[in-house]
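It is worth pausing here to work through a concrete case rather than discussing structure prediction in the abstract. The textbook approach is simple: state the sequence, then state the predicted structure, then interpret. We follow exactly that order.
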Amino acid sequence: IVMQHRIHDRRKGVVRRVTEIAEVIPGGKSGPSTSNIYEWDAAKDVLDPTGATCQFLQEVANFAGISFQVVLDELEERKRILADLQQRGVRSHDDVCDITQNYILKKRGRI
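Step two, the predicted structure:
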């Protein structure tokens, strides 16, 4: 769940900010619950991780038969690739698809 609010910034006026990102965790008889994964730090104007373990990523690790750390490492690598694309100004849909698909094919040993 992505929560977004209109915030009055004294320098910028009214702006929209994502103030929290939460995941829905299936529940038993009591029903589903939520767990905040990121919360907005107004002083720094950034989303900070809460430190809560993401249940979805844990399930991905379990179903893939890999450790939770391997999933986190893969996410960091993909984050690095996307940051590099942003820094180089790569914005074309086709270019982004080509680069990300080549990354996956190289990872699988097909290139």
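Step three, interpretation. The chain is about 40% helix and 30% strand. Residues 68-88 form the longest helix (21 residues).
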